[in-house]
From TrEMBL:
Residues 141-487 form the Glycosyl hydrolase family 13 catalytic domain. Residues 632-646 have a biased composition (Basic and acidic residues). Belongs to the glycosyl hydrolase 13 family. Residues 661-675 have a biased composition (Polar residues). This is Glycogen operon protein. Residues 623-675 are annotated as: Disordered. One of its GO terms (biological process) is carbohydrate metabolic process.
Length: 675
């Protein structure tokens, strides 16, 4: 036994895994199947150990070793020794040697855990979790470092790329309309990609070349926030992460963090990790990436109010609270296919627009970490991952994208108009679907990764969010803000349960109905690319408690215009245009109160590759009288406008069936748009 320390053999209490501060010392609890187990203590930064304390033979319950050691642990760090081999504590809450991001200099330095003698005390004050239902959430997906690391973020150098930096951007998130922040893995992980020796190979492992695992989807030390994501000369990741969470909650925002498991972990360990972050760090939810023991987590009483996101929840009995949610690429891939005009997509369109199970939520997105950004989705046919150093072999080849005629950046007006239009189309598909919308950071102002769809190793301008685009692509930003607010104001687009396609309230109309070019006659033939969806406002409420408006959403992803017949509205109601993605001069939208009335209330011409959202609102009597005088003129003007539209039809080169074909050269006009 080390001098100044002794084992308290009378302490028979059961403690949580890891180190727990007790009166006069600490308790060590560690799972291991080894025959012997010991704690090796070091002075901070020392190469040689200060001493060794071995677990007594009888200090073991099953495969869990536990002992209380009395003494002064101030300034000490520890690792465990199992059968002679040292290893960090898998339940450690902080690690030394990991402070500097991506430093090759620390490669051979040991990773140890400081002994916590204070019990992790933190004043949460009056912290309250917002507990926002899925149908009211708008999720914003960030990477802690990439979100504010770029100099254009406007933050001080010390705050950039940190938890503190995320907290300082809360006003921006609130202004955008975000309710929930989803954070890529914030746990301590080894970002240096260190080649390993292949078993049986006579050759030694290669030397690391400085390549990084920027994303963090790898095994890590799951009970510790990443030290390199904290600020200041004295890194305090635990305090800084909690400060960030508390600031988010004060602003009414939630935090969902991502945790990656590769399947080598015991299910009970995964459960311990998720419970820990919920209890210790007050997170509002966890998205499980990779392996997930869904039944164990989904039915755990401690987690019954925690948002849990995973690819699926088959076999899980949902609780009373709707806290589980599906999270997969199905929406993104199908809606992108429809967006670029692929055939046989209408059934998938209506499925995703409506999909919102009663007991399990669903998260929808048009772009996410692994794939093209929203801007790249309309700018590239094929991936451009050469910067990853793998000869462009990495990353998926199935992006369901269309470059609108030119591969990569373009200054041609027609190309840029089409790209903006397609982005508006994509955003309306996302935010007018019943599931919970997720927006990838920077997609609200045209972020590009230059065609890289697998930027896992790019710790540079490819991955860092360039806030300067907020000015150059302000029209996209304004559109996103408006469509988020529009969704919040009209609950028919985010009902608590999935639309029934029935008139179950006996109000004269179903909650949602499908229409073709003729009303009440939907057609789903494989060659069709147009559909109308009618929403009855009597099934929704506005924020002030009044009945919602009526809506008709016309989708036309064909490369030719089509005339849609319009459903009849109740007496004294008129159709108004809320969105028309073809109208670039008004950024595709008419903010509240400025929606123009359709003079022709029977039909509307929807231009090629366009979504139009019509709002059925009651028209005051005094306005109707004045409009009646000009009815004849309005009809004649409409006919003239219709002729003009048809005369100015533009023909676009379409993505070829069976797969996308790259353009003849990146950045070169291929003549895809023919006036």
């Amino acid at each position: 036994m080390m001098k100044g320390f002794r084992i308290d053999r009378n302490d028979g209490r059961i403690y949580a895994m890891g180190v727990t501060a007790v009166s006069g010392g600490v308790h060590f609890s560690f799972p291991s199947k080894g025959e012997t187990c010991a704690v090796i203590l070091y002075r901070k930064g020392a190469k040689s150990p200060k001493g060794r304390i071995e677990f007594p033979v009888n200090a073991r319950t099953g495969d869990v070793w536990g002992m209380t050691v009395l003494g002064d642990f101030s300034g000490l760090e520890y690792v465990y020794e199992v059968d002679g081999q040292q290893m960090p504590d898998p339940y450690g809450r902080k690690f030394t040697g990991m402070e500097r991001w991506g430093s090759l200099a620390r490669r051979d330095k040991p990773v140890r855990t400081p002994v916590d003698t204070e019990g992790g005390a933190y004043d949460w004050e009056d912290d309250i979790l917002p507990c926002i239902p899925y149908d009211q959430c708008v999720i914003y997906h960030i990477h802690t470092r990439g979100f504010t690391k770029h100099a254009s973020s406007g933050l001080e150098g010390d705050s950039r790329g940190t938890f503190k930096g995320v907290a300082e951007k809360i006003p921006y998130l609130k202004d955008l309309g975000i309710t929930t922040v989803e954070m890529m893995p914030p746990v301590e992980f080894e970002e240096l990609i260190i080649p390993e020796r292949v078993d049986g190979s006579p050759f030694a492992a290669e030397e690391p070349d400085g390549k990084l695992n920027y994303w963090g989807y790898t095994r890590g030390y799951y009970f510790a926030p990443k030290c390199a994501y904290s600020s200041g000369p004295v890194r305090e990741p635990e305090r800084e992460f909690k400060d960030m969470v508390k600031a988010l909650h004060r602003a009414g925002l939630e935090l969902v963090l991502e945790l990656f498991f590769d399947g080598k972990e015991a299910p009970s360990y995964v459960l311990d990790v998720v419970r820990f972050w919920a209890q210790e760090y007050h997170v509002d939810g966890v998205r499980l990436v990779g392996y997930a023991p869904v039944k164990l987590l989904g039915e755990d009483p401690y987690l019954s109010r925690l948002k849990l996101l995973a690819p699926g929840w088959d076999g899980v009995e949902p609780g009373q609270e709707k806290h589980l949610a599906e999270y997969n690429d199905g929406f993104m891939m199908d809606m992108r296919s429809f967006l670029k005009g692929d055939e046989d997509q209408l059934n998938r369109l209506v499925y995703h627009i409506r999909h919102n199970p009663g007991q399990v939520g669903v998260v929808n997105y048009m772009a996410n970490t692994n794939g093209f950004t929203l801007m790249d989705m309309v700018s590239y046919d094929t991936k451009h991952n050469e910067a990853n150093g793998e000869e462009n072999r990495d990353g998926t080849d199935y992006n369901q994208s269309w470059n609108c005629g030119v591969e990569g950046p373009s200054r041609k007006k027609r190309i840029m108009q089409m790209r903006r239009k397609q982005i508006r189309n994509a955003l309306l598909m996302l935010f007018l679907s019943q599931g919970t919308p997720l927006l990838m950071m920077g997609d609200e102002f045209g972020r590009t990764k230059k065609g890289n769809n697998n930027s896992y190793c790019q710790d540079n301008d490819i991955s860092w969010l360039n806030w300067g685009l907020l000015n150059s692509n302000s029209s996209i930003h304004e559109f996103v803000k408006h469509v988020i607010q529009f969704r919040k104001e009209h609950s028919v687009f985010h009902m608590e349960k999935e639309p029934a396609l029935m008139d179950y309230r006996s109000v004269g109309l179903p909650d949602v109905s499908y229409h073709g070019l003729k009303t009440w006659c939907p057609m789903f033939d494989r060659f069709l690319r147009q559909l109308g969806i009618f929403y009855c406002g009597k099934y929704g409420k506005k924020p002030d408690g009044r009945e919602d408006d009526y809506f008709y959403v016309a989708f036309n992803m064909h490369w030719e215009p089509h005339e849609f017949a319009l459903p009849n509205l109740p007496k004294d109601y008129k159709w108004h245009t809320a969105f028309n993605t073809d109208e670039d001069q008004v950024n595709g939208m008419y903010p509240g109160g400025s929606e123009p009335v359709l003079e022709n209330q029977k039909s509307i011409m929807i231009m090629a590759r366009t979504i139009v959202v019509l709002m059925g609102k009651e028209v005051p009597a005094q306005k109707k009288a004045s409009r009646g005088k000009a009815a004849g003129k309005g009809e004649r003007k409409e006919e003239e406008a219709d002729d003009t539209v048809r005369g100015n039809d533009t023909v676009y080169r379409e993505p070829q069936a069976g797969g996308l074909q790259p353009s003849s050269g990146a950045g070169q006009d291929t003549g895809a748009l023919q006036p």
